[in-house]
Design a protein that fits this description.
With 86 residues, the chain is α+β, with helices and mostly antiparallel strands. The chain has one domain. 22% of the residues lie in helices and 29% in strands. It contains 2 helices and 5 strands; from the N terminus they run ββαββαβ. Strands 2-1-5 form a 3-stranded antiparallel beta sheet, with helices on one face. The chain has a two-stranded antiparallel sheet with strand order 3-4. The longest helix is centred in the middle third of the chain and has 12 residues.
Length: 86
């Protein structure tokens, strides 16, 4: 089994666990990638720009995972990795 690179942040779909698996050099980096993918993010906008016409609120909800699925992507094939600079 290959050794985990301690300087690499990676995200994959694990078939055995049926969930996303994150490997990270720093805990805050792992949290960043998971929260960006799974959580709802609020995006500020003017009330007339909101797609859902959520007046009187000036934000819309965005979710990267849901948006990718809506566009036809299979999230079980996701593979992401990036390394820290020296």
């Amino acid at each position: 089994m290959p050794k985990h690179n301690e300087k690499k942040l990676s995200l994959i779909w694990d078939k055995r666990q049926k969930d996303f698996v994150v490997k990270y050099p720093r805990r805050c980096d792992g949290a960043l990638i998971m929260h960006s993918l799974i959580n709802d993010n609020l995006k500020w906008c003017l009330p007339n720009e909101a797609e859902n016409k959520s007046y009187p609120y000036n934000w819309i909800k965005e979710n990267l995972k849901e948006e990718l699925e809506k566009r036809g992507y299979d999230l079980t094939t996701i593979k992401f990795s990036i390394e820290l600079k020296d």
